[in-house]
Amino acid sequence: MRNKMRIGLLIVSIPLVVMLSGCRLSTVLSETTPDIDKERDAELLTAFFGRDSDLPLITFLLSTKAPGNDGMPLVFSQEVDPATLDVSDFEITSLNGTKYTAADATLRPAIEAFELRTVLLVGEYGDHPENPPVSVKVVGDLMSRSGQNYKGQEVDVIQLDEGPVLSYAEYFTFTDDYPYVEKGRGCDCPRDETAMVARLVWSGGVRAVNGKELGDNELDAITVAMVQGSDTIHVKPYMLADLKDSDNNIDLCLKEKGIPVYVEVEAGIAIDPRDDVNPKTQLEIISRW
Domain containing 29: what range? Predict the structure, then answer.
């Protein structure tokens, strides 16, 4: 049975009514697609059963079909070609074997340049705990921006009562042609103080355990392994960026020069919209370029 609608969020860190009011909701294609993506496999990385029949009314800003339905963010290894995204691209299987099709599929709210790797599915996929969704498969011709087809990719679903984890991480620097955002929602790390940026993509939206944005209180709980010549050092971000834009991307601002290769986040610093706490989560960091 459907639960009563609760006030909450799907993959956002603070209320959508604040974050999205007056905000442009069209996708932003980066001017260039990293050539290295042609050499890497395009994969479906995670599927997160974020909400069970209780998406709040305000989520109509993401999809008119969202309120009262299930929500499931999917994270991909490469940016999705928006022109190929269709609701029929996905098949969700529940515990008892029932096959479901999403009611809608959208890239919102992670729609900034270089962020188009999270697809939000809304619809009805079964109920926790009796018959939850257990797997998601790409059954249509969903393409990456590098030209690879995601069709056939399948992953197990992270269950409703599990906490958020890291799905993807990449590093980059601010080149002259980088679409830099100096201030406001989703702004970048300070250009002059930042030697390297490590972008973390969570399986769903996260907040700090106090319900606010992740920030200074969480810096010591995040460790980045960085290669400097023949040495490997371990550093902490001095600041977090790309915040207050309602998506699942968070940037680590690093002062140290080198090649970030690994990130580890301690357990218990972040919660999902249901207040489930993250386990210890770690991931390889790859180069955007």
Answer: 16-158
